[in-house]
């Protein structure tokens, strides 16, 4: 997979077909034989073409383009009309078109959205040859590879298993070094604290279960990243409004084209939302509308008095002053900050020593992305809008970004093809599809199933259309039976739903009481000798409330699992 497109004077379809060099060679010889009217040779070449499935080559190329997110009409366009990101996708399609025993892929998911990344995973799992790839997408690695080669201190170490297995093995190896012990424990404690806070506010079972599993896994692998040079965070904003930003019955789009209709959304501090949806459905349009880059076509938007937006998108890298250093970029934002303060801050983003003074033009894409993140973090936003922030970031920076977003106290809206980042940083999903923005109640596995269903629908529609003449309308008796079945199902589900709601109310009450106790424990005077008994009482209350919250949450997860299992059974019936 080449990283640049050198040939542009070609149609998109032809450029992809060029990846099959054997096909192109047979076609070239066939043209020559037809020109010279070598009839016997023409027959031989057609037999060769048939042996390599040459007659289905265009269909295979179209499938690759479709899977990677190209629209149907793109196959006939000129390569030179495509943007840089789409040209990289085109190179990937060309590499997959190639007949190969060894497939070499360098960051294949960098310019893909989540839908295309999932499709590519499925394609690679069926690839019969040897695959050697570089990727900073841990879920992608987990689902595709069976070995990890770790390049560290000019050495190569081979680990058997996927990326998660590598992290655990490396964590165990690093944990044996006593010097690292305290630092490891601090990082694990930070993640444990986030797990506890999430448990206290968890309200959606499937997402909550998925999220808790991911967070608990992060506790296990935290030591594997203990020698990372990145330790940045998003400092809390000075002031916060509630709500921070609202959209009311908004039509969103551009150049007279409406992409999203009647969008209503209210963002409050602590909201953590991931946007899901097919390529081109309007996820970036929604974010650009929220940040103000796109004016509303109709409806209303209102920002809170203290709203401060941090916005990360690909054009943020292009907006950097290539001649200026990271230090100068921040100095322009805050001329009162001392050079040492800025240097210390930039060090957490990996810009140490003279790196903070280097002009941005000398930086790689990943280093420029870190500069853009540093500029956002310095300004202390209370609303983060992030559109594919992990492009160009390596695994250590992605891990640091995950931790930073976990501890961010404001509101977050995230678009990303990095499923690990989504699972570990957002609590709710919105589905952007078919011109609408709606709540998506499932998790990422459910979204993958939803995508598969969307791909099947055109086939089902064609089948139903072809068989329409053989079907009669639904009878009144059938409709009555269907309504009776639906009523019975609702009755079977009602007790479990009521139990879940009751447990959620109990959890809310205990969480509120626990927050009050912990607020009192934060009072410095409490730790004076005169207040010893009061401190002892509050600590006992804190322990009891934590235990009670865990018990309620455990029962809540059990009831919710029963509810979802029954819902699946009823759907199957």
TrEMBL record:
Q: Which InterPro entries match?
A: AAA+_ATPase, ABC_tran_Xtn, ABC_transporter-like_ATP-bd, ABC_transporter-like_CS, ABCF, P-loop_NTPase
- Biased composition range(s): Basic and acidic residues: 477-488
Molecular function (GO) terms listed? ATP binding; ATP hydrolysis activity
Instruction: Say yes or no: keyword Nucleotide-binding present.
Output: yes
Q: Membrane-crossing residues?
A: none
SMART domains the UniProt entry points to: AAA (SM00382)
Q: Domain ABC transporter: where?
A: 242-459
| Coiled-coil zones | 493-520
Instruction: Please verify whether the record's keywords include Ubl conjugation.
Output: no
Kindly state which keywords UniProt assigns to this record, in alphabetical order: ATP-binding, Coiled coil, Nucleotide-binding, Repeat
Region of interest called Disordered, as start-end residue ranges on this chain: 455-488
Q: Which SUPFAM superfamilies match?
A: P-loop containing nucleoside triphosphate hydrolases
Family in the record: Belongs to the ABC transporter superfamily. ABCF family. YheS subfamily.
Looking up PANTHER family in the UniProt record yields: ATP-BINDING CASSETTE SUB-FAMILY F MEMBER 1, ATP-BINDING TRANSPORT PROTEIN-RELATED
**Name of the molecule in the record:** Probable ATP-binding protein YheS
For this protein's source organism, the top of the classification is: Bacteria, Pseudomonadati, Pseudomonadota, Gammaproteobacteria, Oceanospirillales
